[in-house]
Amino acid sequence: MPQLSCKKLCLGYDGREIVHNLNFSIEKGDYLCIVGENGSGKTTLMKTILGLQPPVRGKVETDSSLKKNGIGYLPQQTLVQRDFPASVWEIVLSGCQNRGGFHPFYNKADKKLAEENLAKLGLSDMKKRCYRELSGGQQQRVLLARALCAASDILLLDEPVTGLDPKVTEELYSFIENLNKNDNITIIMISHDVQAALKYADKILHIGGKTFFGTKEEYLESEISDSFTKGGTLND
Amino acid sequence: MTDFISTLSQYLSYPFVWYAVVVGALIALCSSLLGVTLVLKRFSFIGDGLSHVAFGAIAIASVINLTNNIFFVLAITVICAILLLRTGQNTNIKGDASIAMISVGALAVGYLLMNIFSTSSNLSGDVCSTLFGSTSILTLTSTEVTVCAVLSIIVVAVFILFYNKIFVVTFDESFADAVGTRSRLYNLLIAVIIAFIIVLAMNLVGSLLISALVIFPALSAMRVFKSFKAVTVCSAFISVVCALLGILVSIVFATPVGSTIVAVDIFVFFVFFIVGKFKKA
Q1: Pairing of strands A57-62, A31-35
Q2: CATH numbers and ranges of domains, chain A
Q3: How many cross-chain Cβ pairs, A to B, lie less than 8 Å apart?
Q4: Using CA atoms, how far apart are residues A21 and A10, in angstroms rounded to an integer?
Q5: Over 50: is that where the pLDDT of A236 sits?
Q6: What are the pLDDT digits (tens) for A181-196?
Q7: Residue A236: which of A12, A42, A44 has the closest Cα?
Q8: What pLDDT does B248 receive?
Q9: By CB atoms within 10 Å of each CB, which of A151, A202, B210, B217 scores lowest?
């Protein structure tokens, strides 16, 4: 049984259908990249997987071993966050919310988990630092640690490298790769960066216009990749 | 200086002055708690809009001759808070416009009603005291003090109980939703608490100046402190100290209570602004 599968999934918003009949499934430990032009429905797909938005038709099925809210999410950064007075520790710990029932305060297990995830992403010595004073790459790592506190089975990343310089981008990718390889965490990543997608992912989902789902090797041989990867510059 | 102290100690021997001090401190504490969230979520104007709604509600209450108008005003303000937040979620421009619409509308209709159905001989005095706060803080009955204390305790308790949720919803709504913290529900909770705070604070500073009480302490604390907890604690502290100072100064120098408190808040903001600049450098 796959960890997560979408069957005949149709997505859209405001009564407009933008993705038709999507079929794909992922196994535990997969590294899936979702590529496609702007407005093709990548973020909508992600929200549907997270259960924040109902599909127009079809359904998303998850393995019974996957807990409810067992998916960690790294959303795109918002304007509010840039000037937010919060320490790294507070933000990472906030990922521990809703770990079983209503508890208004964090317990020891929550704090231990937060410590572990800080260490995993090399942030232990930045615990007390203020979020708004960190660099873009460090901020993304903080949010990644928070997502890991929320769930340790699947991570959903929405364009995690937007606005980062090439060196920091590589660094972040290698952190994500480590989580995938060493901790066997399933990665689902929306990306504009097709080259990186081809470098790190083992499965590719292309949506918008024609739909493609398969391994990276199959994708490279398919027609659909031609226009997208070799068609010169991407307009974003 | 000795004069000041002797006048002060003389005033402090009256119980009504103590009532005012206690109520003032409680209101200041409550109003500062959500300030950080409001500023960060770009909700500052909702507080302002709601305070005008409360003014309109008071006008209606006085027209229909309600004796105990606090619960009526509270109900109207809570309903408007929920309505404002709902529209605010769709698009920003719409939200902005609807806040402006409701707030100015309530102000105009309130004044109009007061004019047409006025039973009081001193209309402009009534209006002025509703808008800018009044000496009514010095004429509180013990029942009013009790109501105020109970409401404040509710606000503080709810805030502490939901502190972690409020943090997550303030920082990142999408993430909150994804982990199952329903951000819409907590936004609603925040709006209702704001409505409570505004109705409480109307006694102290009047409806035009409430936003100052909510926003200044938070903005001051944000200049200097770097964690959400530190900012929240500091802004509560600033708010209470400023309110107490303001009340005492206004009693001794016979200045209007509300504006004096806000003036102290503004002064503290500039102090923190400068401290923040030095700390960065």
Answers
A1: unpaired
A2: 1-29+53-66 (no CATH), 77-206 (3.40.50.300)
A3: 88
A4: 5
A5: no
A6: 888 888 999 888 788 8
A7: A42
A8: 87
A9: A202
**Is B242 a residue whose pLDDT tops 50?**
yes
Q: With an 8 Å Cβ cutoff, is B280 touching chain A?
A: no
> Higher-confidence residue: B193 or A230?
B193
Q: How far is A178 from B276, CA to CA, in rounded Å?
A: 39
DSSP line for B120-176: -S-HHHHHHHHHH--GGGGG--HHHHHHHHHHHHHHHHHHHHTHHHHHHHHH-HHHH
Class at the top of the CATH hierarchy for domain B2-276: mainly alpha
B171 touches chain A (CB under 8 A): yes
Residue the block writes with tokens 């149709």: A10
Nearest CA in chain A to B157: A104
For residue B211, how far is the Cα from the chain centroid? 6
Check pLDDT > 80 for residue A15. Answer: no
- For the segment B44-65, the average pLDDT, to the nearest whole number, is 82
A146 touches chain B (CB under 8 A): yes
B281 Cα to chain A: minimum distance (Å):
14
ipTM for the predicted complex comes to: 0.83
Residue A235 pLDDT greater than 50, yes or no? no
Q: Is B267 exposed, middle or buried (0-12, 13-18, 19+ CB in 10 A)?
A: middle
Q: What pLDDT was estimated at residue B133?
A: 67
- In this structure, of A39-43, A192-196, A225-229, the range with the lowest mean pLDDT score is A225-229
Tokens encoding A172: 């972040």
Question: Average pLDDT of chain B?
Answer: 83
Q: Write the DSSP assignment of B74-112 as a string of letters.
A: HHHHHHHHHHHHHHHHH-HHHHHHHHHHHHHHHHHHHHH
Q: Which of A94, A102, A142, A148 has the most B C-beta neighbours within 10 Å, making it the best mutation to test the interface with B?
A: A94
Report phi then psi at A122, rounded to 5: 65, 35
Q: For chain B, which residues make up each domain, given as ranges?
A: 2-276
The partner residue sitting opposite A97, judged by closest CB among B36, B161, B181, is B181
Which H/E stretch holds residue A25?
strand A16-26
Compare A149 and B118 and report the one with higher pLDDT.
A149
Closest CA to B99 of B82, B84, B114: B84
Between β-strands A154-158 and A71-74, what pairing exists: parallel, antiparallel or unpaired? parallel
Residues 6+ apart with CB under 8 A from A80: B40, B41, B42, B170, B171
User: A183, A145 in Cβ contact below 8 A?
Assistant: no
